[in-house]
Design brief:
The structure is a homodimer. The first copy, chain A, is built from twelve helices and 17 strands. By secondary structure, chain A is α+β, with helices and mostly antiparallel strands. Chain A folds into three domains: about 80 residues, 3-Layer(aba) Sandwich (Rossmann fold); about 60 residues, ATP-grasp fold, A domain (Dna Ligase, domain 1, 2-Layer Sandwich), CATH 3.30.1490.20; about 180 residues, ATP-grasp fold, B domain (D-amino Acid Aminotransferase, Chain A, domain 1, 2-Layer Sandwich). In chain A, strand 13 and strand 14 form a beta hairpin. Chain A is globular and about 55 Å long. The two termini of chain A are about 25 Å apart.
């Protein structure tokens, strides 16, 4: 999707992707090597004016290795924060962005102390390399502390208060080289088995939109950020708590392709290539459903809901995101009816 | 735009375009040869599963030369009709699609007789190779018949009644290999100096929409057509008169990229590659402005109107279409206000 956005702007891309049949192959040449291949990275740095990434588990060392030879956006520091839940939480705190209470956990004793201080349930996570609900567990009873710590590897963990949120939203913003910042209306997100399933926009209700934007501005400015950043937030009444941020285009913003005058992908490419970014304006009421695990054989089900299918061309695998579909409603109820219809059709297919 | 649509569907394209810096180069390899180069055509036929065209002045002989070796859609017969205004008018008549009165003109005497039979003013056109208002003149006074005939080459002309239309609309339809047909809501078109300037959709008002669709079905079925076809119509009160058809994606349907769940480009690629076509559903109230002659230096003017710019990357030249911009209004008045604002900004730039 970044490649397509770049093409529309007349910018040529090359890609580094170790996977077989990389989806990006439709938009330019692909170097099929590991993210830490020094040869591949040197080739990228030699042939490109700027390097960007859309996966926050790219090794920071890889990015550092080419930083002297090629401009890299977003900045590697953002990648470092995003790869360490502790550093990320401390960054939020330093910017006065509210977060659920947390404690560092490197042993069963640490987790017991955390449970005492913060109460249960607690969400216990590996500090590094977790995504889509992987590398986390819930401690409901202090008696299970040992089992939970063992399950997650014994150390390098963080325990967070379990937030009984009303809903989850994400705030997507983009900062240009010039410092110009624009933001998208909030997306409201629904997960299934830890994986994003549905996003709807706009999810604004006055106060939380303003607060979320304020947090985005603080983060983007503090990191001297260039590109798209997504901030995941819990909404509890009128309060917001930051969950985590992603230094990249975000799944909850995929509706921006059809649902706005400028997609997150175009704005990201604009930012990292030094262009001004564009203030988004929404078309109707967008919604997005992820297609996970298997792609329906009969594509007609998408057309019946007037949904636009994005098929990433990946082979099916349980829990794998194979594509997404966007609907644009004329009203909130029209969008939600289409999403429900499509969701039911997908579940039955 | 066809190339981008094909890429999104996972279909690889190659292009034949004799122009320097062909816009399609961003979407695949380009053979830079003339449309009648037999070598180039043979290469296309050898390397491709299907050949299509998006310019109705491609020589029919070129298309015929490769028809035996490669599937060609739309059918060459449609190209032949579209290249001869007389054959086209006769086709309309045979399908009982109303057309303005017309006479064949191969001499000054013919034009005088036409003026006597049909009255003045008359629109006099070359029967072949006219587009964007080129190759036509208006006869207001029979005394000018000789001058008008000379100006247009002396023969091979057609004289048509000058229709005092209320508005011009275009009907865009697409037919799949299976015979399945879907149509877009009518576009209402405004020209400036013979070149399409603004299109707005939907331009329906009950009766004319149904009649226009009926004409499209007759044409598509009669021609055993595969792909997108655009029918230009004059609206006079409740009556419709066919002006001409284009056997290709059409400028008045460019708003379908942002303004519908499926663009004319995607539906064309679907049709010519043998896929089912998709029933269009509109997003809000789309409008499109062509950018003609020069591209504004300050692209901010597009963003101020939340317009999406498509810059074809062509060098400026008076009367040349260099790009287009799309707006999606929340209402008819919102769309029209944005179009007016953008039009004024373009005129001043």
């Amino acid at each position: 999707m970044l490649g397509f956005a770049a093409q529309s702007l007349g910018i040529q891309c090359m890609f580094l992707d170790p996977s077989q049949d990389p989806p990006a192959a439709v938009a330019g040449p692909v170097i099929s090597e590991a993210f830490d291949s020094l040869d591949a990275l040197a080739k990228l740095a030699r042939d490109c004016d700027v390097i960007t990434y859309e996966f926050e588990n790219v090794p920071v060392a890889s990015v550092m290795a080419v930083e002297a030879d090629c401009r890299i956006s977003p900045p590697p520091a953002a990648l470092e924060y995003a790869q360490d839940r502790l550093a990320e939480k401390q960054l939020f705190e330093s910017l006065q962005i509210p977060v659920p209470g947390f404690r560092v956990v490197d042993s069963t004793a640490d987790l017991r102390q955390a449970a005492e201080a913060l109460g249960v349930p607690l969400v216990v996570k590996t500090r590094r390399f977790g995504y889509d609900g992987k590398g986390q567990a819930i401690l409901r009873d202090t008696a299970d502390a040992d089992a939970v710590v063992s399950e997650l590897g014994g150390s390098g963990l963080i325990a967070e208060q379990f937030v009984r949120f009303d809903r989850e939203v994400s705030a997507i913003g983009v900062r240009a080289v010039s410092g110009q910042i624009v933001t998208y209306p909030l997306s409201q997100n629904q997960h299934r088995e830890g994986i994003l399933r549905v996003s709807r926009a706009p999810a604004e209700d006055g106060r939380i939109g303003a607060a979320a934007n304020d947090y985005l501005y603080r983060l983007l400015t503090k990191l001297n950020y260039v590109g798209v950043l997504a901030l995941e937030l819990f909404v509890c009444g009128d309060s917001l708590f930051a969950n985590e941020f992603a230094p990249r285009v975000h799944n909850s913003g995929h509706w921006t392709i059809e649902g706005a005058n400028v997609s997150q992908f175009e704005n990201h490419i604009r930012a990292v290539t030094g262009m001004p970014v564009v203030e988004p304006s929404l078309y109707g009421f967008p919604g997005m459903i992820n297609i996970i695990g298997t792609m329906p054989f009969d594509k007609e089900l998408f057309h019946k809901s007037a949904a636009v299918l994005h098929d990433y061309g990946k082979s099916p695998r349980p829990g794998r995101k194979l594509g997404h579909a966007t609907v644009i409603g004329n009203s909130i109820s029209d969008r939600d009816a289409r999403l429900t219809g499509l969701q039911m059709a997908l579940d039955e297919s």
